[in-house]
Amino acid sequence: MPGVKLFSAFLTISFLAAGADLRLGIIGTDTSHVIAFTRILNDNSLPDHVDGARVVAAYKGGSKDVKDSYTRVDKFADELKTKWKIEFTPDIASLCRKVDAVLIESVDARTHLEQAKVVIAAGKPMFIDKPLASTLEDARMIAKLAKDAGVPWFSSSSLRYGEIATTMKYPDTLGVMTWGPGPIEEHHQLELAWYAIHPIEMLFALMGTGVEEVSRTSTDGADEVVGRWRGGRIGSVRALRPYGGYGALVFRSKEVSQSNPKAAAGYRPLLVEIVKFFETKQPPVSNEETLEIFAFIDAAQRSKAAGGAPIKLR
Fold this sequence. Notes:
Strand content: 15-25%
CATH architecture of the largest domain: 3-Layer(aba) Sandwich
Structural class: alpha/beta
Number of helices: 12
Radius of gyration: 19 Å
CATH superfamily of the largest domain: NAD(P)-binding Rossmann-like Domain
Largest sheet: 7 strands, mixed
Strand order of the largest sheet: 12-11-7-10-9-8-13
């Protein structure tokens, strides 16, 4: 393992010294992110192009029991092959030998731990797209294995770098309410990790870490999750079903600030952070914060099972 990591680091340094783009590999072609990310990274004629890295290889993956996977995996794979000339590999180990860093994009978060194990064994830094995992235990195991092997990683929703989360951080914030889509996928044990991860990530971007207790009220049309932070601050998120817009209210010492209903989002700001991470190996979101987000979601799931009772984080 140490030899693999040293060789990988040597290749990365050599590429950077030569001014070449980092070579990225994609695992999982069952999300529209693979097309959007490849377009922004590989087409330097676009106004939202991000320099420094290119997608060069992919492993298709896919899950036969998740509709959002089996109905899209071949379509996006074909587009990567025909339009973007991406090379496909028969397995993840082969992919890792062709790239400097990896984007785990599989839409089914249940697959992320096993996929990450191969990437970690190859010593490649990795970005794991939302959600990091389908359970808190899987999330913690990814973190442990990566730490033990010295492999840097991070995971984030693109909403963390959108207009709402980046323009509404105030030193006098007393509490925050965010909202956004919250559809549920039946195979994911942590229901809110599937899509409500977006407004939850915005909540943490604006509140920071320090959650102690969580309660959840759930209906067919929405979930309301309330967290109590250290020091008595309260943050809440409303997950809308089937879909809805994104927004935030920030309660401050002398006023309440509301987000712009037409706030800009997009993937470019996230990709800027991803490329910077692959160059520096320093995650822009600490692994500890990402794990606290999953502990928050886990506590919300246990609160639902307990009829909405407040649940302390594990």
